What we know:
CATH architecture of the largest domain: Orthogonal Bundle
Helix content: 55-70%
Number of helices: 12
CATH topology of the largest domain: Tetracycline Repressor, domain 2
Radius of gyration: 22 Å
CATH superfamily of the largest domain: Tetracycline Repressor, domain 2
Shape: flat
Low-confidence stretches: none
Distance between the termini: 46 Å
Strand content: under 5%
Mean pLDDT: 88
Oligomer: single chain
Number of domains: 2
Amino acid sequence: xxxxxxxxxxxxxxxxxxxxxxxxxxxxxxxxxxxxxxxxxxxxxxxxxxxxxxxxxxxxxxxxxxxxxxxxxxxxxxxxxxxxxxxxxxxxxxxxxxxxxxxxxxxxxxxxxxxxxxxxxxxxxxxxxxxxxxxxxxxxxxxxxxxxxxxxxxxxxxxxxxxxxxxxxxxxxxxxxxxxxxxxxxxxxxxxxxxxxxxxxxxxxxxxxxxxxxxxxxxxxxxxxxxxxxxxxxxxxxxxxxxxxxxxxx
Length: 250
């Protein structure tokens, strides 16, 4: 699956669409569909069939209209991907409550939930992000929490980028196993069990002494499923990142 990139469409048209404009025409025949319906249909297709299956023609088929009618609302696939990505980020419904750390943990949990609900998000590179309300509301939420922590303005801005990068990157990696299980029908736990022969017959304890030492000390003892292990790793990484930020306040 090729990675799609946000921010690749016409800037002025994309930004207008992200923020609710331009308005629907008031004269002539009433449009068969709206921008919101186009975006919702595109998300539904990507949820069921993957981002690779999402095209203007496929979305038109989903809506039961001609492909050309979509271009009245959305210039093309590049702009549509921006609308889709920002649309699912709006689903986070971030609520400002608790300490600054608790609010950031809430942001992380809600972002992970979005990636689990829409695994195709891992196939969208947002290095050049869609500047819509879904993204911007999340950044405002993080910055408010970090400012309340006592960080200086420049530190808060840098910390926000670090947290956002970690959460989105880790959430995208987490859904890999989910997608593979759906495609192959094999769970991550089953995949690892089938490769036990590597550890039994091929792993070289002398070549990998540190791994061996940790293994013998119980470092790799698995509690629960692969998903449980991934969650513990996610929480550990986020916790240490927030510890570092907190340490800079002293």
